[in-house]
Amino acid sequence: MEELKKIITLLSQFPGIGRKTAERIAFFILKMDEGKVKELSSAIVLWRQLVKPCPLCFNITTRERCEICEDPKRERDTLCVVEDASDLYAIENTHSYKGLYFVLGGVIKDEGTKRALRLKELEERVKRDKIKEVIIATNPTTEGELTALHLAKLLKPFGVKLTRIARGIPFGAHLELADSITISQALEGRKEI
Amino acid sequence: MEELKKIITLLSQFPGIGRKTAERIAFFILKMDEGKVKELSSAIVLWRQLVKPCPLCFNITTRERCEICEDPKRERDTLCVVEDASDLYAIENTHSYKGLYFVLGGVIKDEGTKRALRLKELEERVKRDKIKEVIIATNPTTEGELTALHLAKLLKPFGVKLTRIARGIPFGAHLELADSITISQALEGRKEI
């Protein structure tokens, strides 16, 4: 059926949705109340239309500034630099960080991707807001590490404390299943107990 | 962020989408072209609005009758009874069945679900269209087997050949990992080679 193929193709463009899941969703929609389907569909369009980057930290927001930048309880001299807003929410969900953020907009892969990053905006932010510590929380991938090194070089002249999130064996994981880079980083980053 | 929570809740109502995948999809939508998001959203609404059950076999269709019922190349005296339209497409994808279908609309769980099934419509279909063989292809679950037995009893008076899809060890699976019911059904259904 043509229409089924079309809806499966549309749905399977999303991350984490294969053709089999897309098909299950397509049949699920047919059993949904028509009003609910309309509600969902406008929510998706509104989500795309109303959400903009916060001009201060580039987190997503529907207001003038994001709720983290607006929150008077956050420590304003600590800045955590992440690749994307989704990384910011991963950190927020831990409830263990009380400073502010800066969303870089990706990682350095080449000169083109480097130009697309908010490097100028980050420098200005650090200077203007008298930031004392910058936590570099790009992902521990090859490109994330390269970007972290570049940021460290870039921010050194501002005399801020520069830190990098710890690498090691993830909680609940087993040594025998971890790759050798992770194991050597866990050894390197060992702490006295 | 309230809007993020809302969109995650909406998306994670779908089968196969957990909160983590819903979040990834939410961020993916923000990076999509606005026109593409609108296109997707109307495609979902149209899919729900235009797709109706075929009056003959209750497969999904946007036309008066579904394309399988309309296809002159299908064998018109063989009927394969499935629980849902999604099962019908699972069979169609094998390209190994050339007869027609009948979508029952579920399985018997109790008197209520039994009343909701298209049992009358199935009887009429078998009688009116001079069906010679009915393949009962409900799922090999407890309820699917119960429903299959009920259908067999119901259709016996019409003098049609009644068959049930084979149960056994699935292709690519291992005996040591199969459950004992499956293994005994595979032994019971053994064929000479």
Total E-strand runs of chain A: 6
Question: Multimeric state of these chains?
Answer: homodimer
Helix content of chain A: 40-55%
**Shape call of chain A:** globular
State the end-to-end CA separation of chain A. 63 Å
Low-confidence stretches of chain A: none
Output the structural class of chain A.
alpha/beta
Order of SSEs of chain A: HHHEEHEHEHHEHEH
Largest interface: A-B, 44 and 44 residues
Query: How many DSSP helices of chain A?
Result: 9
Largest sheet of chain A: 4 strands, parallel
Range of strand content of chain A? 5-15%
Average of the residue pLDDT scores of chain A: 92
Radius of gyration of chain A: 21 Å
The strands making up the biggest β-sheet of chain A line up spatially as: 4-3-5-6
Relevant terms:
9 helices, 4-stranded parallel sheet, homodimer, alpha/beta, 193 residues
Put the structure in a nutshell.
Two copies of one chain form a homodimer. Chain A is α/β, with parallel strands linked by helices.
Task: Describe it.
- The structure is a homodimer of 193-residue chains.
- With 193 residues, the first copy, chain A, is of the alpha/beta class.
- Helix content of chain A is 47%, strand content 11%.
- The first copy, chain A, has helices spanning 2-11, 19-31, 34-50, 67-70, 85-92, 111-116, 119-128, 142-155, 180-188, and strands at residues 52-53, 60-61, 78-82, 100-103, 133-136, 161-164.
- In chain A, strands 4-3-5-6 form a 4-stranded parallel sheet.
- In chain A, β3, α5 and β4 form a beta-alpha-beta unit.
- In chain A, α1 (2-11) packs across α2 (19-31).
- The termini of chain A are far apart.
